[in-house]
TrEMBL record:
Name the UniProt record assigns to this protein: Virulence sensor protein BvgS
Topological category with respect to the lipid bilayer: Multi-pass membrane protein
Domain (Response regulatory) ranges: 868-982
Main location as per UniProt: membrane
Length: 1112
């Protein structure tokens, strides 16, 4: 059916296009026909107008000459008498007698007649010729009076009837040269012609009407001539003479009139006929016309015309006939069609061109419509037909069930065999038909329904039905896709069981790693603390060397544990980055100074090349320093001789495309170590990977450093790569994308000129560039000082002689002090401290450094501040520990258990500082800070938090706090914070970095008991909340426990588990319960303490179960 309709549509479209094309061609042809008709009418009108005007002018000339002839006949007739005397006639007669026969003479009577020519034929006039002379006199006098000066070429003739004489005026100069016989012949022939013409016209011409004769060729003058004449009779009625005019045909046809000019311009050929059809005149330009029978055709056409004008075609020309009112003369004008085409060729060509263009446009348009409209329509129709056929094929061959159901009444419009097999029409869900259930579940145009359908092959079949509203053949339908998901559901259940087993295995691994880390770190912290206290006592030299070895080994072990924890955090996706401003140059110098002793011990040249003019950056300086420390430590570890070079500079655009507000920083560490093979390079950044099996035995380490560096670089939007060849050393390159901070300000605003002395060209050039970037005028040292006041900067290990002329000498060494120290002849400073080097320049030149650090007298590592401090924390142990730290610093702490209690204490007493936990039930630290600011409090408020998450620092500052301190809080950090928020105490020097609480928690029995009791209470409430699914209570108690353990500075695994529970990382109850069980195990292990036996982990857990029987 569809195929037949498609073919029918094709035929209809083709015929319709043909009809349209034919109609358009007919319209264009009609316009052309109208144009041609209009053009022909214009040609006809132009030629008819020109011919009528010309013929009217010719008739006027004819009438003028006929009037002259009639008047002449009257004057020369017998009735007319001259008023004047006959004396002139006598004189003229005497002249006539004096002219011999067969001759011609000029005759002139001044004042009476125009000059004339008298031609005498034979015989001579008789004695009575006086009468003829009288006629001539009257003829000549009237001719002069009528014409004045006759038109050029027109002559008046008085011819004796017997051909004896002829009087012509104006004179014929050529007649005087004729011979006698010829003159007689001219006169005689002329008289015979007029006599013959007169006899022919007697029957058809009314009496008294002038007669016309011609055309004939003139004997004396060239050209065709027409003559108009009348016979002259005497009183007796005898024919005496003829009065005539000789008119050149050219004068009659054109003359000097406008009509003649128009006729000549029109190009028409003129012919004149008398009433008898006799040809009077045919121009030389019309000689191509055949005149046989033409006079009769002209007479026939004009006689049938009412207006005296007729048109017809003859001999390839347009013929226009004209006739005067007296119907005497008739004219035929022939207008060649070739001339018409030539005159109007431009218009005709334009019309034909437009017609051709229109015709071509119609055909082109028809082809365009056929190709761009009809053929696409036909292709679309074919595609629709193919698509419908294909859709039906797809429906029948699809591996899923498809069913189209009309929503109005549930009628099935189409379905395939799988749909009928998997979902029978009578299937019901919860007691109602499946279609009703689908429509009830529909939302946003689609619906999903999963149900079980009885199967004849055993158990029920799981069927998933996905429906969506659409239109099918003009009706609203529901398209249902039916899937048999029985196997998929079985696979999902198996996958869930496998995932549960994998989670349990992963949790067991994490539990084991955390427990082992805790078991190792707990005695290690005690050992490090004891070693630190031991180093403060008096020891022999050998004992101090052994102590240093123990401390170094302990630090390596601690670094391995830290790497393991960092790797665990990275694997779990819990590693977060801080965003604080820092100076990359100072960070690099600090890291290099920390590793410089290793380079000195091994005899390696350690050089740092920070790019001059690097701006301050915003990022995580701790993690950036960790990357530098790992790469630099590896380079120093594996390099036995040679050098290690560290470069810090902006990355090239190709290596680090700039992002909005971020720049690429390139860190490069190059060494002259053993190099790395390509096989090892491919796996170098994998966890626990080292160069070969002997590496761990020779150099130690966990093999996690480079893996952690790669993860940290990726977190900072960068990358890490290595270039190395065995035996040629290695180059590690790290690109980090960090936000750009404020430009670095010069350490010293005014610096003396410096000459750099070094045996290494790279070191010298880099030092010069760096100093110039800092505003110092630096040059290479070539000998004595080139100018007064210049400082010599020695950046080399071996000095043979100090050139003369320098005001001071600064020696930079790897083991030099950070602050310049005087030595013999100059100043000694660290080669890895830019600020110290610049201050050394100032001191060497006798200037006072602007940025020199203040010199303070030695004070006690734990200064007595004497401050009134309000401590607000909901956890008892946190309050106890903070109280002990503040009392050690000589402060008087006031403790509050909640934000409300802290606000009330502020209103009762005056404090110098408020230290508040930010996360507390009820009024938290943020709200407390806002309340204090609302009441006009100006004292510093410091927030205490167990973990500064992304954006939490900004929240503290927005709440009105001055600073925040992350837990655990060491004495050095606490003193530094108090000094920052209290400018009056800025001169106080904090204790050395890393100074912890006055006593470890295991040494503080009362504190341990309090911590254990509060942790047990919180854990019991946390466990109860987990059993009830109260997630808000879970987060609240998890936060309290995390804050307490973070304040202790120990138990990282407990802190991480509490953090996961607090942030709601897992909302499923079974996963929450698993976290609670793991937390119970860690708590039991942590508080096992002295009960841990030497048998290992199992003994410790047994003691924990005895100590926490209700939680394990």
């Amino acid at each position: 059916m569809v195929n037949w309709l498609s073919r029918a549509n094709k035929q209809v479209h083709g015929r319709l296009l043909t009809v349209v094309v034919v109609l358009l061609i007919l319209v264009i042809s009609s316009f052309l026909a109208l144009f041609l008709h209009s053009l022909f009418q214009r040609i006809l009108w132009e030629q008819a107008s020109a011919s009528r005007l010309h013929f009217g002018t010719v008739l006027e000339v004819k009438a003028t000459h006929e009037y002259f002839i009639r008047r002449m006949a009257e004057i020369t007739g017998p009735e007319y008498r001259l008023v004047r005397s006959d004396r002139p006639a006598g004189q003229l007669e005497a002249m006539l007698r004096a002219v011999p026969a067969g001759s011609a003479r000029s005759v002139e009577v001044p004042g009476l007649i125009n000059p004339a020519t008298l031609m005498m034929g034979a015989p001579a006039p008789a004695a009575g010729h006086h009468a003829t002379a009288s006629h001539i006199v009257r003829f000549a006098i009237f001719e002069r009076a009528y014409w004045g000066t006759a038109p050029q070429g027109v002559r008046s003739v008085f011819l004796a009837a017997d051909g004896s004489e002829a009087f012509v005026t104006p004179a014929l100069p050529g007649a005087l040269a004729l011979s006698g016989p010829l003159v007689a012949d001219v006169v005689s022939n002329w008289a015979k012609a007029l006599s013959n013409r007169s006899r022919e016209a007697q029957r058809k011409t009314p009496a008294g009407s002038p007669l016309w004769v011609g055309p004939y060729q003139g004997t004396i003058e060239q050209g065709e001539i027409l003559s108009c004449f009348l016979p002259v009779h005497d009183a007796a009625g005898n024919l005496v003479a003829y009065a005539a005019t000789a008119i050149p045909a050219r004068v009659l046809m054109s003359g000097a009139s406008v009509a003649g000019a128009l006729h000549a311009a029109s190009g028409a050929r003129a012919m004149f006929f008398d009433r008898r059809g006799h040809l009077l005149y045919q121009g030389s330009d019309a000689s191509w016309l055949r005149t046989e029978g033409l006079g009769e055709r002209v007479a026939r056409e004009l006689d049938g015309s009412q207006q005296g004008v007729a048109y017809w075609f003859e001999q390839g020309s347009l013929m226009i006939g004209n006739m005067g009112r007296d119907r005497d003369w008739r004219a035929a004008y022939a207008y060649p069609l070739s001339l018409a085409l030539a005159d109007h060729g431009a218009a005709l060509a334009a019309a034909l061109l437009l017609y051709g263009l229109g015709f071509a446009g119609v055909l082109t348009g028809a082809d365009f419509v056929r190709r761009r409209v009809l053929m696409p329509m036909q292709r679309n129709a074919q595609r629709i037909e193919d698509s419908e056929r294909f859709n039906r094929t797809v429906m029948q061959t699809a591996p899923v069930g498809l069913r189209v159901v009309r929503t109005a009444d549930g009628h099935v419009r189409a379905e395939n065999a799988l749909a009928a097999q998997w979902l029978p029409l009578d299937t019901s869900v919860a007691g109602r038909p499946w279609l009703d259930a689908m429509l009830a579940r529909q939302g946003a145009g689609s619906a999903r329904l999963e149900l079980q359908v009885p199967s004849g092959q055993g158990g029920p079949r799981d069927v998933l039905v996905v429906g969506r509203h659409t239109r099918f053949e003009g009706e609203e339908v529901l398209l249902c896709a039916i899937h048999d998901v029985t196997d998929e559901r079985e696979a999902n259940r198996a996958l869930a069981r496998a995932r549960q087993l994998a989670d349990e295995a992963c949790a067991a691994k994490s539990q084991f790693l955390a427990a082992m880390s805790h078991e190792i770190r707990t005695p290690l912290y005690g050992m490090l603390g004891t070693l630190e206290l031991l180093s403060l006592t008096a020891l022999a030299h050998g004992q101090r060397e052994m102590l240093a070895t123990i401390q170094s080994s302990s630090q390596v072990l601690l670094q391995i544990l830290d790497d393991l924890l960092d790797y665990s955090r990275a694997e779990a996706g819990q590693m977060e980055l801080d965003a604080v401003p820092f100076d990359p140059v100072e960070l690099l110098e600090s890291a290099v100074r920390a590793q410089a002793p290793i380079a000195l011990r091994k005899g390696l040249a350690l050089t740092a090349y920070p790019e001059a003019g690097l701006p301050c950056l915003i990022g995580d300086p701790v993690r950036v320093r960790q990357i530098i420390g790992n790469l630099l430590g590896n380079a120093l570890k594996f390099t036995s001789d040679g050098h290690v070079i560290v470069r810090l500079q902006r990355a090239a655009q190709s290596a680090a495309p700039a992002a909005a507000g971020r720049i690429g920083i390139l860190l490069e560490v190059a060494d002259t170590g053993p190099g790395i093979s390509p096989e090892v390079q491919a796996r170098l950044f994998e966890p626990f990977m080292q160069a070969d099996a002997t590496t761990a035995r020779r150099f130690g380490g966990s093999g996690l450093g480079l893996s952690i560096c790669r993860r940290l670089a990726a977190l900072m939007g960068g990358s890490i790569a290595v270039a190395s060849e065995p035996g040629k050393g290695s180059v590690f390159r790290v690109v980090l994308m960090l936000s750009e901070g404020a430009p670095r300000r010069p350490v010293e605003p005014v610096l003396p000129p410096v000459a750099v002395l070094s045996e290494d060209d790279d070191i010298r050039d880099n030092a010069i560039d760096s100093l110039r970037a800092l505003g110092c005028r630096a040059v290479a040292c070539r000998g004595p000082a080139p100018e007064p006041g210049m400082v010599l900067f020695v950046a080399t290990r071996h000095i043979e002689a100090i050139p003369a002329g320098y005001v001071g000498v600064v020696v930079a060494r790897a083991d030099g002090p950070a602050e310049p120290q005087p030595f013999a002849g100059g100043w000694l400073v660290s080669a890895y401290h830019q600020g110290g080097i610049l201050r050394a320049f100032c001191k060497a030149a006798g200037m006072t450094p602007v940025s020199a650090p203040p010199v303070a007298a030695p004070i006690d590592p734990t200064p007595q501040l004497g401050l009134e401090i309000l401590v607000v924390d909901d956890h008892p142990y946190n309050r106890l520990l903070m109280q002990q730290q503040l009392e050690r610093l000589g402060c008087r702490p006031t403790l509050a258990t909640s934000g409300e209690e802290g606000l009330a204490a502020y209103r009762r007493h005056k404090f110098d500082v408020v230290l508040t936990d930010v996360h507390m039930p009820g009024m938290d630290g943020y709200e407390l800070s806002r309340r204090l600011r609302a009441e006009g409090a100006t004292l510093p408020v410091v927030g205490l938090t167990a973990s500064i998450a992304q954006g939490e620092a900004e929240r503290c500052l927005e709440a009105g706090m001055n600073r925040y301190l992350p837990k655990p809080i060491l004495l050095g950090d606490l003193v530094e914070c108090l000094r920052a928020v209290l400018p009056a105490h800025a001169a106080l020097v904090p204790p050395a970095a890393g100074t912890a609480a006055p006593a470890h928690i295991e040494d503080n029995v009362a504190g341990l008991a309090l911590l254990e009791r509060t942790m047990r209470e919180d854990f019991e409430q946390l466990s109860a909340a987990a059993g009830k699914g109260e997630f808000n209570a879970i987060r609240r108690h998890a936060h309290r426990m995390r804050g307490a353990m973070a304040h202790v500075g120990d138990g990282e695994e407990i802190v991480e588990l509490c953090r996961e529970l607090e942030l709601g990382a897992a909302r499923a109850l079974e996963v929450v319960q698993a976290h609670v069980d793991h937390l119970a195990l860690y708590l039991a292990a942590y508080f096992a303490g002295p009960e841990s036996d030497s048998d290992g982990r199992e003994g410790s857990q047994d003691a924990a179960r005895r100590k926490w029987p209700d939680t394990i």
